[in-house]
Structures are given as C-alpha cells and as structure tokens.
Amino acid sequence: MDVRFKVGADAISLDETGLKFDINDFDAWAVEAALQLREKNAGSEVTAISLGPDVVQETIRKALSMGADRGVQLKADKVPFDGLAIATALAAELKTGGYDLILFGKMSPDSSNGVVGPMTAELLALPCVTAISSLAIEGGKGTAKRELEGAQEIVEFQLPAVLTVDEGLNTARYPSLKGIMAAKKKPLDVKPAQLPTPQVTVRKLELPPERKAGRIIGEGATAVPELIRLLQSEAKVL
Amino acid sequence: MATDFYDIDSALSEEERAVRDTIRAFVDEEVLPIIGDCYIEGRFPKELVPKMAELGMFGANLPEEYGCAGLNNVSYGLIMQELERGDSGVRSFASVQGALVMYPIFAFGSEEQKRHYLPKMASGEIIGCFGLTEPDYGSNPSGMITRAREQKDGSWVLNGAKMWITNGSTAQVAIVWAKTGDEKSDKSIRGFVVPTDAPGFSAKDQKGKLSLRASDTSELVLQDVKVPATALLPKSGGIKSPLMCLTQARYGIAWGAMGAAMACYEEALAYAGNRVMFGRPIGGFQLQQQRLADMLTELVKGQLLALHVGRLKDAGTFLPQQVSLAKRNNVSVATDIAREARRLLGANGILAEYASMRHMANLESVYTYEGTHDIHTLILGQAVTGLSAFEN
C-alpha cells in the first residue's frame, strides 16, 4: 500500500511503520563509480559500509548484488542526525587505511545535510572533493569535475581521497539476478558503531501545512473571463 | 505500490523482493516507454533481449552450473509478473525462451545438449521457439501430424507444419515435437532441437493479429528437414514431455497475468483520482468505486494464488492441475480487470497512450494459449471426478 509520511509519536522522528528503505540515488552512483574503477583495476576490491540498525543490511546486500565484494554494517539502534557523530564512527572504522578512495553520495535525502563525507575526510586528514560529476583515476592521482552554477570546476587530488558523488557521474546498474544470488555468499561483517554522544539533535519535526483544495471555475475559453476576474479581485496577482 | 493491498511483500524473502525490484526497474525504464509504439507498429522489441539476458531473466530458475541464475520458483514467477506488467508479448518471449525451450533441454536433453545450449540461451546468444501446436491440432496436440523418420545412419527427417509459434521468426533453434512411430498413438511423440537455418525449415510471420502485437508469432513449415541423431532430446517420450513444458510455462502465466492486472488496476486507480466529471474526481462515484473494489479483490486473490502455487512448486509438491487452476483463474480475472479498467478510462481508454486496452487485447491470447480456459476447465473436471471429458 502507498504510505504517506507520518511524524512519529515522539514528534522528532518519522513513523517508520510500512516504510521501505532503499539505497539512495547518490549512494547508488557512488557504488557504481567504485565498481567501474574495480573493473578497470584488476585485483582491487569494493567494500560497502553502512551505519544503522539491521534494516541497513538489505541496503548493503543491494550493493553486494550490484557487485561490491564485501559489506560492513556499523550497527547502531538509530542513525543520529548529527553528521559529526556518524563521521566519527566511520573514521574509527576507516582509520587503519587499506583503501585508495572513499566514495560517498553527496548527501542522504533523509537529512540533506551533506556533511558526513567532508567530515570523515577531515577526521582522517584526507583530501576531499564534494559533489563530483565526473571522475578519472591515473597514476595515484585523480581528476574530478564539479558542476557549479553556470560553470564547471576541474580539480585534481592525491590518493587516498574522499569523494562525494553528485548526479551525472554515471547511471547505476540494476543488480542482476545472478548478482542477487551471489550476494548471499559474500561476507557481511557486523560491528558495533563507535558513536560519540551526538551534539546536534532534532527538537521537533513537522509536516508542512496541508494545502487547501483547488477550485475549478469552468472549462475552455468561456471560463477565462471569470478566471481573470478572480485573479484580479480575489488572488490579487494581476 | 497500490497493488499490494494485502502486504504480500511481507510474505516474500529479501532475495525475492530484490529480484522483483530489478525486473520492475527494468520494465519501468526500458519497456514502458517504448511498448505502446511497438504494439502499434506490430513489432517485438528485439533490442531488449541483450539487456534481459544480462540481467539473467532467461531460464532464471534453472541451475547456475548451466549459466542460469538458479532462482527459486517464486522469484521466477515475480519476473514473469513484472514483465507482463509491461506487456504480455515481452513476458511471452521470456516464457518461451525459459520454460518452453531451456526447460525441455534441461529436463530431456543429454549432458552435451545442456552444456552446449543452456549457457548460450541464458545469455541470449541463441533464441529458441517451441513447436507443438499445429494448424489442425491446438487443444488436442496428441493428434499432431508432424513426423520424424529415423534414417539408416541414425539421423532424422522431419515433415510437418506448426502454427502460433511465439519467437518463430526470431529463433535460431526450434524445439519441434513430432511423432516417431505409430500415427495413432501419442506415445511416439519426441522432441528435437532443430536449427532454424536447416534446409527445408521455414518460418513465416503471422500477419493481422489484433492481440500480442508486440510479439513475434509465426508459422513453421518443415519439409524434409534433416537433423543428426544428436538433435533428438533423448529423455523425451510421449505427449507427457511437451505437457511437462506447458506446466512450467502455465505456472509463469499465472503470475504474469497478475502483472498485467496490476498495471490495469493502477492505471484505473490513478485515472479515477485525476479525472474530474460533474465537478469531482470520478473515483468519488459509487459505480467507479465498485469497479475498483471488484478489480482489487480479484487482483489480491490472484496474487495469493500465484504465490501459494509457487511455494508448492518450490516445495516440489505441486500438481499440474493446481497450475491449471491458477492459470485458468488468473488469466480470466486479469482479462476482466483489464476490460473494466478500459471502461473506467472512458474514451481515453481506447488509446495506446494508456495500457489497459493493450493488456485487454493481449490477455485474449493468453486466455487462449497454453491450454485454453476451456481445456483447463476440463483438466480440473477430470482431476476432481476422475472422469475425462476430452480423452476417448
């Protein structure tokens, strides 16, 4: 059944009853970018990491179905709103290195903060390029394009680096049916997320006020004079 | 989705939902934008085949060792559901390739035949068709006239004509069923893997269809077609063999029909909410609400039927007559749902821009093929009474 968003009883979170979670587009493009790089670089490996309750395992397995080699769940009862707390837990997992690139979606559409990628880079003291729409890696260096308003920026960076992915980088593949079967056999490690106490919390969550129903004045050309009259006298926009 | 009124999703495994979501995305992005035009043009969208193969849709419930996806039967059913949500012709293509060509090679073929054909058919490199029905032998395939005569060197020569063959003009190989001995007995019926470029083999597109227009339907003629001994499916024997294939395909149709019904119901529901007449959405009128309630009720029942027969198939306990019941019911109700959706859409419902009339016309073929509705009635009658109304 179609589910409309509802604010939960606590008034600070969504009521998740009946909601289905899926990998967001930005993250799917990040996974796709990683898979394309692996296909060009024999011997490389893609690991998909997600922080959250067990429901994120399905999201991780989607990345595994697309072709990622292994998954890591940083287990937490809830995903905090505080991007720094999430970045701290991710950095704790990633501090031992062993990677050339860490790819993020440019933001989660749930919170639209867009800070976890850059903050993780900061904590790991790695170069960071945000909202990239093209990417090339060669000889330990990378080049990426960022779309600015009415302009483009081409940036170069050293590896290892943190990138966040914007629209236009690629089209994410569908998990193939064989990929879905293979994903069941791939390793998915579950570890407790080392989350610090969040310093930013949501105090209140409200849905926008309901819009009033529209009014149909009439149909066709005969309705135009009445429409103009109402736009002038009632809506006062003419 | 508005069509999952009973939260049937919760009865599916994560893997089954993932399979369904992949095919759903494929149909939304690749099939729906082009299928209306294909239907008008009377053309099967061949360009979809490589993508369908890449995703693993062909013979998806056959084992991985032959290059197939190795899915369970519920996942396979969900693939058929989603494909037919696009169009019955697209689903028919996959049904024939998987259930009517790959399945008999898997079930009746030699190990060499399996290793040779199945991976190439899974990858779409080889397309197949299934030649059982003849111009004068539809519901009564046992009466077929097509003959295969064994030659002294062990090769075979085939003569006969087959009709209503999906993929007939597209295929590189045809599974041809022919009598190898006594003309009166169906016990000598055996299957052959016949290359469609063999001398004497011809396929002719059947023109003038008002249904399944986005599907290749052809007539096959075999005139002294010589095939080697290795073309025979060694484990095939009697009319039972092709009927086993049909059970596989009918199982997929029970799911597929619900896909078409989902598309029609969703279209009708959305239209009822948007179309304003007498100053309010027509969905607010009791007559349209009754239409929607009836459509939804049959949709949910059919979905549950398909899922349960799938669970029985996965458990290995399903019976052909249970598949007959599901095919008979689900295609029949889907046809009704499509017609009611078309009517709810008013004059717009006759346009190819909307899907309901296309599905309605397609489902008339689905109602008639793979065992007509009437024949499934008699199969059920025979199953419950022990008395056959159609066998002498």
Largest sheet of chain B: 4 strands, antiparallel
Structural class of chain A: alpha/beta
Question: What is the percent of helical residues of chain A?
Answer: 25-40%
Strand order within the widest sheet of chain B?
2-3-7-6
Could you give the count of β-strands of chain A? 8
Regarding quaternary structure, what we see is heterodimer
Task: Describe the global form of chain B.
Answer: globular
**CA gyration radius of chain B, whole angstroms:** 21 Å
> Which blocks of ≥5 consecutive residues of chain A have pLDDT under 50?
none
Shape of chain A: globular
Low-pLDDT regions of chain B: none
Mean pLDDT of chain A: 93
Q: Helical segment tally of chain A?
A: 6
Structural class label of chain B? alpha+beta
Largest beta sheet: strand ordering of chain A: 3-7-4-5-6
The separation of the N and C termini of chain B measures 48 Å
Descriptive keywords:
heterodimer; A: 238 residues; alpha/beta; five-stranded mixed β-sheet; 6 helices; 23% strand; B: 392 residues; alpha+beta; three-stranded mixed β-sheet; 10 helices; 9 strands; 51% helix; 14% strand
Give a brief rundown of this model.
The complex is a heterodimer of chains A (238) and B (392). Chain A has 238 residues and is an alpha/beta fold.
Structural notes for this entry:
- The complex is a heterodimer of chains A (238) and B (392).
- Chain A has 238 residues and is an alpha/beta fold.
- Chain A contains six helices and eight strands; from the N terminus they run H-E-H-E-H-E-H-E-E-E-E-H-E-H.
- In chain A, the strands form two sheets. Chain A has a five-stranded mixed β-sheet with strand order 3-7-4-5-6, sandwiched between helices.
- In chain A, a hairpin with a 2-residue loop joins strand 5 and strand 6 (151-158).
- The model of chain A has no long low-confidence stretch (mean pLDDT 93).
- Chain B is α+β, with helices and mostly antiparallel strands and 392 residues long.
- Chain B has helices spanning 14-41, 49-55, 73-86, 88-108, 111-122, 240-274, 286-315, 320-344, 356-368, 373-385, and strands spanning 128-131, 147-150, 156-166, 173-179, 189-195, 201-205, 217-227, 276-277, 280-281.
- In chain B, a hairpin with a 5-residue loop joins strand 2 and strand 3.
- Chain B is globular and about 80 Å long.
- The model of chain B has no long low-confidence stretch (mean pLDDT 96).
- The chains are: A alpha/beta (238), B alpha+beta (392).
- Chain A binds chain B through residues 1-2, 20, 58, 61-62, 65, 174-178, 180-181, 184, 216, and chain B through 1-2, 4-5, 7, 9, 14-15, 18-19, 22, 25-26, 54-57, 60, 64, 69-71, 75, 79, 276, 279.
